[in-house]
User: What shape does this take?
Amino acid sequence: MKAYTAKTKNGFITALGDVIDFFEENGHKVKFFRSDSERIMKWGPVKEFLGKRDIKPQYSLPFPHYRNLVERYVQTIVKAVSVTLHCQSFLKANLWDYALFYIVDHRNLMLNSKTGRNTLTQLVTGNNYVDLERENLFSFGELVIV
Assistant: This one.
């Protein structure tokens, strides 16, 4: 999972391109782009971008979140970010972006029942190690003295 934040609609194209480049750099061909937003799919820059990359758009139903695995996962991430921020006494909601990146990064490095003995990062990149030089070895918002 990758997360991006943007203040404008054009940030979506940049994020989409980064995600597709990431998967292709790691040997995965992106064939489809699925969205429940008809407005995004019909937006000129997205149509042009997908056409250049030979990626077929797919529509999903917009409101059945309880049946949509991605929507449920997004809600799980949103709740985890919210809980992470609420558990802090020093941090405020303006750090939502950083909490989001922290949660997504840690979810990608966790083992789960669906991936067997690999993390999500290992499945995509093929790297079988955890980088100990990471900035997120501490809990989010933990006071650290250097």
